[in-house]
Amino acid sequence: MRRGLAPLFFNLSAFVAALAVAPYTAPLWRWLFPDLQRPLWDSRSWFALLAEHLALALGAALLAGLIGIGAGVLATRGAGQRLRPLFDALFALAQAVPPIAVIALALPLLGFGAAPTLLALVLYAVLPVLRAAIAGLEAVPPAVLDAARGTGMGRLRILAEVELPLALPVIGAGLRVALVLAIATTAVGAVAGAQCLGTPIVTGLANGNAAWVLQGAIFTAWLALIADRGLRWALAG
Amino acid sequence: MLAGLAAAAPFLLGLLSLAPNRLLSPRPAGLPLTTPVLLSIAVFLLAGLGLALAACRARSLRLAELLAVAMMLALLASAGMAAEALLRDASASARAMPAAGFWMSVLLVCLAGGAAAAGRGAAPSLFWAASLLGGSALLLGGGLESLSLLKEAAARGPEIRAALAQHLALSGGAFLLALLVAGPAALLALRHPRAEAVLMGVANAVQVVPSIALFGLLMAPLGALVAFFPVLRTWGIGGIGPAPAVLGIAAYLLLPLASSFLAGLRLAPPALLEAAAGQGMTDRQILRAVRLPMGAGVMLGGLRLAAVQAVGLATLAALIGGGGLGALIFQGIGQLAADLILLGVLPVVALSLAADALLAGAQTALGARA
Fold first, then answer.
1. B28: part of which helix (H) or strand (E)?
2. Could A187 and B212 be called an inter-chain contact, meaning their C-beta atoms sit closer than 8 Å?
3. A73-77, B128-132, B351-355: the lowest-pLDDT one
4. What sections of the protein cross the membrane (chain A) (predicted)?
5. Total domains in the fold of chain B
6. Do residues B189 and B71 both lie within one domain?
7. Which fold does the domain A45-236 belong to in CATH?
8. Comparing B8 with B218, which gets the higher pLDDT?
9. In terms of DSSP bridges, do strands B95-98 and B27-28 run parallel, antiparallel, or are they unpaired?
10. What number is the average pLDDT over the span B206-235?
11. Is residue B33 located within the same domain as residue B101?
12. Which is more confident, B88 or B16?
């Protein structure tokens, strides 16, 4: 077992245990917030929220991966190279707009729920994948490409059997960054009515229930920290 | 190809839609066929045709870029005039708003203009500057007054100005607070490796926590603090309001500021530092005469990143009662009013782009001087 895995595993188990114990901590919250009628979040199971949170983040990372790798392949081919600065500018602009703004803009078009959140997450997560895809594809040594062409491989086969496999470690790193980014950003989606760990925060703010806000904030922050640690561990290995 | 799509989009998806009032959902509306509208649509189509032709030849790409500008302005003008014509025989509370075709076309024209600029290896600054200039001219000339976005803006003028001022105060205050903390902390970390580990550890951990969660985490302790020391409330500090927002935003700015300060201070090569010390310069003199001038570029880069982040983060401050442009956005979400959301989002994007451009300009000026 590599170093650093044990604390990560411990952290993750503590997180799951805390989620499981959370419904039984009513006395604690009643003591901390004596003025509130229902200080304990019990509208929806924490595990359901966690599952929806992760599903949103995973879906967004997957879509961002498809778009980012596709754009990266396009941007490293002959004709697409002219579009490189354009891609860069476009995705940099997408990053300059805060995710809450994207969600708000998409709301009238896509309606309440997960769809606007997914859009914002994809826009956000696509840049690291694109950068990684371009860097990975450009790092393939020209000699290897020449050799592949020499054996009579077609352009598509070279892409599928030589370039992408060689670029895979770099692209994988970009994908993992995208996933962690998506996990952290998903919480904002609660504003648009997407069910996730941010839901208790937004519901609590709307109802003036500081205890719900605190509970949601603790679990959202904890999950993001775990994801970040996991990423560091994975990239260091 | 982009030009062709851009020219077709308004006709396929509809240029404008009409809503009975500002809250009801709009319905697509036909184009009113008055002379000025027809004229500007003809200009739009001609420019599109010219753009498609010019884009085929590498030598005429500058012309293509200018034609993209013409397309954009003609599109804006047609939308403005068509809206005016539509509203002439509608009720007073009716709103004409740009429909999907308009937005699609704007996006595609931007892409085409950007592609033309990229094709000759330049930044699309000509396209942006010309479009912005022409757009403001149209705006000031009153050509767009009938569009719902501007009606909403006119109806809420003071509110928007107040939100803008609040937004600037929030992000500016957080920026100053983070500067006050990060500057001395970076100096301390330069001397003591232990302090650096602590500073970077804290800054990194904060960066990982989602902003909405951090605001939530700050709310309860600050609220408890005020309950304990009611004096604080008279100073405007509390669990809800600008105080936790400024604190939270400043916490996020710590990482870009502190890490760039440290990197900038370390830029001076050790040999140079030794030579300076050998000349009898004190630590303070070395800092002022050697370390700061050499690292200024890197530090400015950190300031730039932090300023852009501050503007974006301040949007969420409205969630915890901090006000700012985010308040308009959340109000718009609550009413599902697209115009109100846009009125909040557009200034945020403009502010962050302006902050970025301003500090980028400072960076180039510094680079030119050195």
1. strand B27-28
2. yes
3. B128-132
4. 7-26, 46-74, 86-112, 166-190, 210-227
5. 2
6. no
7. MetI-like fold (1.10.3720)
8. B218
9. unpaired
10. 73
11. yes
12. B88
Residue B152 lies in a domain: no
B241 with B309, same domain: the answer is yes
Q: What is the pLDDT of residue B333?
A: 79
Mean pLDDT computed over B77-86: 67
Please report, for residues A174, A180, B208, the alpha-carbon distance to residue A237 in angstroms, rounded to integers and kept in the order given. Answer: 15, 17, 21
Tell me what ipTM this predicted complex has: 0.75
- Please check whether residue B238 lies inside any domain of the structure: yes
Please state, in angstroms and rounded to a whole number, the distance separating the CA atoms of residues A93 and B13: 25
Domain range for residue B29? 2-147
Q: Do A217 and B223 touch (CB under 8 A)?
A: no
Least Cα separation, residue B143 to chain A (angstroms):
25
- Residue B329 binned pLDDT confidence (cut-offs 50, 70, 90): confident
Q: Are residues B190 and B296 in the same domain?
A: yes
| pLDDT value of position B147 | 63
Give me the CATH number covering residue B351.
Answer: 1.10.3720.10
Which of B85, B112, B147 lies at the terminal end of a domain, its last residue? Answer: B147
- C-alpha torsion A24→A28→A34→A38, nearest 10: -20
**DSSP code per residue over chain A:** --TTHHHHHHHHHHHHHHHHHGGG-HHHHHHH-TT-S--S--SS-HHHHHHHHHHHHHHHHHHHHHHHHHHHHHHHSTGGGGGHHHHHHHHHHHHHS-HHHHHHHHHHHH-SSHHHHHHHHHHHHHHHHHHHHHHHHHTS-HHHHHHHHHTT--HHHHIIIIIHHHHHHHHHHHHHHHHHHHHHHGGGGGGGT--STTHHHHHHHHHT-HHHHHHHHHHHHHHHHHHHHHHHHHHH-
Residue A122 has pLDDT above 70, yes or no: yes
**Residue where one domain finishes, among candidates B122, B147, B172:** B147
Residue A100 in contact with partner chain B when CB distance is under 8 A: yes
Cβ contact A217–B332 (<8 Å): no
Q: Give A-chain residues touching B326 at CB under 8 angstroms.
A: 100
Residues B165 and B138 reside in one and the same domain: no
